[in-house]
């Protein structure tokens, strides 16, 4: 059942977000407006949206944000390394 839900969620993402380019070309110009503490968590092995390029770009575009890389995780660090993910979120919220 869980795998079915994951698969259907991914299918829905592809259906609704893929076109035109699975991104919003205006996003980069809007990120500077974020004015709350922001933690960016990224899987070190994310091959879809790489932390070195995309994670750093988000960090640089969001004032005062912090980027943390989660080792032994890819595109879904909250699933692949949940303990490390929760640890970092808790530390950030404290």
Write the layout of secondary structure elements.
Layout: H1 2-17, H2 27-30, E1 39-43, H3 51-61, E2 66-70, H4 77-80, H5 82-93
Parallel strand pairs: 1-2
Key terms:
single chain; mainly alpha; 50% helix; two-stranded parallel sheet; 5 helices; 94 residues; globular; 2 strands
Structural summary, described in words:
It is a single chain. The chain has 94 residues and is mainly alpha-helical. Helices cover 50% and strands 11% of the residues. The chain contains five helices and two strands, in the order ααβαβαα. The chain has helices at residues 2-17, 27-30, 51-61, 77-80, 82-93; strands spanning 39-43, 66-70. Strands 1-2 form a two-stranded parallel sheet. Helix 3 links the parallel strand 1 (39-43) and strand 2 (66-70). The radius of gyration is 15 Å and the shape is globular. It starts with a helix and ends with a helix. The model has no long low-confidence stretch (mean pLDDT 92).
Number of E-type strands: 2
Spatial extent as radius of gyration: 15 Å
What's the overall average pLDDT, rounded? 92
**Separation, N- and C-terminal Cα atoms:** 35 Å
Number of helices: 5
Largest sheet, if any? 2 strands, parallel
């Amino acid at each position: 059942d869980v795998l079915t839900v994951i698969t259907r969620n991914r299918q829905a993402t592809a259906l609704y977000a893929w076109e035109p380019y699975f991104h919003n070309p205006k996003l980069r110009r809007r990120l500077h407006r974020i004015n709350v503490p922001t933690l960016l968590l990224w899987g070190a092995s994310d091959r879809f949206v790489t932390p070195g390029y995309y994670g750093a770009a988000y960090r640089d575009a969001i004032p005062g944000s912090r980027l943390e890389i989660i080792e032994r995780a890819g595109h879904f660090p909250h699933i692949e390394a949940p303990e490390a993910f929760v640890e970092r979120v808790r530390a950030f919220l404290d």
